[in-house]
Amino acid sequence: MMRLKPEAASWTSPADAVQALIERKQIEQQLKLQAQRQSLMYHIVRRIRASLNVQETLDTAVGELQRSMSSDRVLVYQFLPDGSGLCVAEAVVSSFKALRGLHLGAEHIPEHYRQLYAQGRISITPSVDAALLSECHILFLRTLSVQAKLIVPILQQDHLWGLLIFHQCTGSRIWLEEEVEFAQVIADQLAVALRQAELYEQGCERQRYLESQVAEHTQQLRQQNEELHEASLLKDAFISTVSHELRTPLASIDLAVRMLKVTLEPLLSDQLATSSKIRAYLDILEQQCHQEIELVNDLLDIQRLESEMQILEQEPVDLQQLILSRAELWRPGLEQKSLELTLHFEPPLLLIQGDRMSLTRILSELLNNAYKYTPANGWIRIQVIQERLATRVQFINVVLELEPMR
Questions:
Q1: How far from 395 is each of 89, 223, 355, 367, 374, CA to CA, in Å?
Q2: Where in the sequence of the chain do the CATH 3.30.565.10 domains occur?
Q3: Which is the most buried residue in 2, 44, 80, 264, by most CB within 10 A?
Q4: Nearest to residue 164, comparing CAs of 71, 29, 47?
Q5: Rounded to whole angstroms, how far apart are CA atoms 148 and 127?
């Protein structure tokens, strides 16, 4: 018969139990602090990214960090192109000196230190008195009441934008690893937020510039329009004055030609050989005088049309009769140039609706062009064709070339 040997009972001493409890509480406390810090980090990142204004972003960042890190002073130091720098944002306990707006020369942070910061170096100083710092640097920090400091670079694509600086003024401080990591994450997020804000402000500046350019060009166009309007008014006044000045002597010439014809009529009846020539000359003179009067009237009408003062009188117009009357006035000039004028009207012609004076000027101008650009011994043909919805008028001019005698 076998007997079972009892196993040794496992037991824990009270000291081990207490140590395990303490460790578990510490782990729980660390996890709780880590969760709180993570939540706080998200809150700060959300706050600093909520604005696209650079200064507002900086002020929000230092204010949130000063409260969350329990620091006496948190500031953002921006480097300038010449190596110097400026304290552009700060949150500080009221009992300590404010540094916002403080400008430091390039010698305060020498070139080799700036290069180290540009490579991502973080400066951790638990106690200023115990740190290996130069005497002048320690004296400078003491004037600012700084006992401990933490400096994290703000980098934008490997470019050193500035520094995120934490000051403890009430005494030395051991900067925890979690605090350093937290400050570094916030500095990285701050760099992104600053870049976004700077790009936004550049875009706004570009928009303001374009708007100013548009406003300037608009003002120039408005001024040019005003100048053109003023020039148009001067032109209208000039045309009106000149036209009226021309109409008076032309009317006198026309009257003088008529009176001359009446006066010479009894004398010309006794001199049949020369009477026909004199009458032709007087007719030409009268015709040219009428044409000049019509040109002046046309000039005035154009001026009225441009100024929208001309009112077209619509009325039924006998186009055939109008063409015949114009052709009769031009006949002496055509005969003098040995031009043959033929008219062709394709019946039945209907009355057209239009402004009689405007149609008269148009026909006169067409006849004038045909007379001007048809060489001697040519012929001009005017034909009018009635179509279903319109009346078509054609002016045709042809040059007659005579072959030389052999």
A1: 86, 45, 20, 8, 12
A2: 312-401
A3: 44
A4: 71
A5: 5
Concatenated DSSP letters of 7-47: PPPP---HHHHHHHHHHHHHHHHHHHHHHHHHHHHHHHHHH
Write out the residue limits of the CATH 3.30.450.40 domain(s) in the chain: 24-203
pTM for the full predicted model: 0.49
Q: Are 397 and 374 in contact (CB under 8 A)?
A: yes
Cα angle at 202 between 197 and 208, to 5 degrees? 125
For residue 70 the two structure tokens come to 């329990």
Please give the CATH superfamily to which domain 24-203 belongs: GAF domain (3.30.450.40)
Architecture of domain 312-401: 2-Layer Sandwich (3.30)
Place of tokens 């706004």: 204
How confident is the model over 18-64, as pLDDT tens digits?
777 787 877 877 777 777 777 777 777 777 777 778 888 889 889 98
C-beta separation of 236 from 306 below 8 A: yes
Q: 397 vs 320, 321, 371, CA distance in Å?
A: 19, 21, 9
What is the rounded distance in angstroms from the CA atom of residue 162 to the CA atom of residue 156? 9
Closest by CA position to 169, among listed 281, 294, 70, 49: 70
Burial of 164 (0-12, 13-18, 19+ CB in 10 A): buried
d(CA 355, CA 104): 86
